[in-house]
Amino acid sequence: MIMGGGRGTRLQPLTRLRAKPAVPLAGKYRLVDIPISNCLNSGFNRIFLLTQFNTASLHRHIQESYRFDPFGGGFVDILSAEQTNERSDWYQGTADAVRHNLNHFGAHDDDCIVILSGDQLYRMDLRALVAQHVQTGADVTIAAKPMPIDEIRGLGVLRLDDDLAVTDFVEKPNDRGVVERLSIPPGTGTEAANAHPTCLVNMGIYVFNHRTLRSALEDRTRSDFSKEVLPSLLDSYRVFGFVHQGYWQDIGTVGTFFDANLRLTDPDPPFDFFHPNRVVFTHARYLPSSRIVHCHIDRAIVADGCVIEDAELQRCVVGVRSHINRGASLENVVMMGQDEFESPDDRVRNRAAGLPDMGIGAGTRIQRAIIDKNARIGADVRLSPKGLPNGWEQGDLVVRDGVLVVIKNGVVPDGTRVGDVFDA
Q1: Hey, what's the torsion of the CAs at 23, 26, 28, 30, to 10 degrees?
Q2: Mode of pairing for the β-strands spanning 157-160 and 198-209
Q3: Which of 87, 203, 230, 361 could serve as a FRET partner for 247 with CA atoms 20 to 30 Å apart?
Q4: What is the pLDDT of residues 135-176, one digit of tens each?
Q5: Closest Cα partner for 144 from 92, 200, 105, 192?
Q6: Other CB atoms closer than 10 Å to residue 69's CB: what's the count?
Q7: Which domains are assigned to the chain?
Q8: Cα–Cα distance for residue pair 134/215, rounded to 1 Å
């Protein structure tokens, strides 16, 4: 089960018109492709996606991307929030979403149910997670990631004993004393090579025995796994932790989304889309190769179908069908691209209506920005969040977490000046 129903309020404005798992990633993917690919690479092909808010683009992506051989028995089945004779309200949390759909899974009591988040960047062999769950005789297994104690804000923290049984679980602790009690001293435990104290954080990845899951969800006042359900199980069930030592990033805010994308341009990125045996699947678009003419590019990911002419790119992610015109300069920019190519006739009509061409106009300079899909940024524009407060908004421009965002379908007229960007 992949949880895809949250509002994604901390990712606004990227989630203004789409569900959080549908947010584009790394030029050509969507966030939801990561958990689905982890499932498929692990041999798990019976996948349910639970959705609720702004679902149209997410549903379309799933339907276009994941079509299975009818003889293999696999599927990615979309389960949207629905009203029934028993319930007429929306999902109240992650546990409530699963509770609403238990009757759709067709699972037996001794089946294992793997529950994944739809908005994280990581690679995990889920077979190892399930194998440990079975080997330990666990009722519930929680995947946990060691992290420095100064990076755990907003995350659940757990403590394990020597046999990996969970002895303590606190959701988003703010008290320094609680954090220190749950921390792993430097030079000990799972992070022996780490010189600083760490904590094991809840990754939002769980394995339940189906019988245990049904029992845990009987109390309808408990709506969220991490806040209510899991802490209530420690005294009555065998709850174990699975320690994940690889890269993992929760894409919860505009800042973490921006940083995770730009880190993919590093010479040795923490998440490698080029892994030979761990393909990340997505929608096959059948686009032409990108055309790049007389450009200076330093550390960039450029997706298919792009046209980039006489431009300068430094540490950028350029999404599908992007068009960057002559003399443009981009530094630390995530550009999501376009849903469709703009035809010459479309350009004529749009120019007559006073709209710039889709993409980035000639001579434009942009720093530290996310350019959402189908944006139209005119010529000789200067955009930067420098000098602007968090939460600043003007027209189709927003500043979040120190990043300037051009919203989806946004228009920035020729000559616009925003932020402190110097002119060369």
Answers
A1: -30
A2: antiparallel
A3: 230
A4: 999 999 999 999 998 888 888 899 999 999 999 998 888 777
A5: 200
A6: 8
A7: 2-263 (3.90.550.10), 291-418 (2.160.10.10)
A8: 19
